Amino acid sequence: MASIIFEGLLIGLGGCLFGVPMSFLIAVVFEHLPNVEGILTFRPTLTVLIPTVAASIIICAIGSFYPAWRAASMSPADALRRV
To answer: Which of 59, 65, 70 is nearest to 2 (CA)?
Structure first.
């Protein structure tokens, strides 16, 4: 059960490692778009990023708990029949 939850945490961490740099890139691109320049601004800061990353990792852990619980409660033969 712990391995499935750990896998969910790794997926969430991987998404954060991809998403945070993308947010900085999008912020830079928004500054140079003529239609968006003064209307929409986004400046990522640590006070925004840290709670967002923490929340996404917690949500991934919670989201992986139910599949882990179901997998732990099944017999291996029943699990293989469903594949």
So the answer is: 65
Q: State how far the alpha carbon of 2 is from the alpha carbons of 36, 54, 55, 61, in Å.
A: 45, 19, 20, 10
Domain boundaries, the chain: 2-75
Pair 5, 65: CB distance under 8 Å: yes
Query: pTM score > 0.85 for this model?
Result: no
Distance in angstroms (rounded) separating the CA atoms of residues 38 and 41: 7
CA distance linking residue 58 with residue 63, whole number of Å: 8
Per-residue pLDDT tens for 48-61? 889 999 999 999 98
Q: Name the residue with tokens 């989201």.
A: 63
In one letter, which amino acid is 50?
A: I
Q: How many residues does the chain have?
A: 83
